[in-house]
């Protein structure tokens, strides 16, 4: 897939922003897309909404981009709606006697499809990540979930998930009662090498579940195992530390601060276990690209190294972090360099940080809405 390169490089005096700092990020967005942000905020204040269908490979940044868009534009009026999260909540409901009864009553009233209610409940209880739930069931559950909320702009993550669901997506806004709202696809192109390394180097805190990346998103605290000559991250989430201290009155502050972040089971294999899923995702994106009558936002996460200086500012490029152990001071030194990866065509490329991708998202949506 070849998506166009979006230019975010600014002319004039060079400015640098720390895009991991929320205040700096706000200044960055005002510089790069201030006019468009104002137009979108006015659009939402007037009660307007839209429906966006996020299509990208697993771990392509769908949630990251849509949530950052919401953070910048209007968090109160914009929702990132994940089908996966919805189904995980359904799992909990099925274990609660009262909620299970309410779910069954809803399905008896609102579901139309090829399975009996008894079969649907069985499918939900025995589901696995390898098989998709019936589309008619997903549609009914989405209508139910959206019905619980005040009407908002929604980024839908996880639908469509299969080729046959593309057709349903074309009429999705009608089905959920957003009949007059603009809708469009947001298609995301991320090289598989980037997804692979995001997975391989991902670590989580076993206490608070905060996710970081040893190579791409470290914490402020780094540990080192001399015997194995390995560096590791220590959780630095303040809320995590507070909860550990309050829940364990005998724990010392030091013990609470030094929680080693760990890899999730299977992450060392990278994309290998999800190769088939990635192939299906790519087919889905290509099919969506060929559709007529529905606008498309095209986002790309990478840029060829040889073109980067013409299109992006240096601070918009994802750095790669590496570490050195200072024996004298007995601590790890964090260093960084531009992260170079091969894209799917084998070309040396840089990965972009989320903000420049979201600038592209903001500007393309503004164009689609004719603002």
From TrEMBL:
Gene3D superfamilies: P-loop containing nucleotide triphosphate hydrolases. One of its GO terms (biological process) is nucleotide biosynthetic process. One of its GO terms (molecular function) is nucleobase-containing compound kinase activity. Keywords: Kinase, Nucleotide biosynthesis, Nucleotide-binding, Transferase. This is Adenylate kinase. It comes from Candidatus Nealsonbacteria bacterium CG23_combo_of_CG06-09_8_20_14_all_37_18.
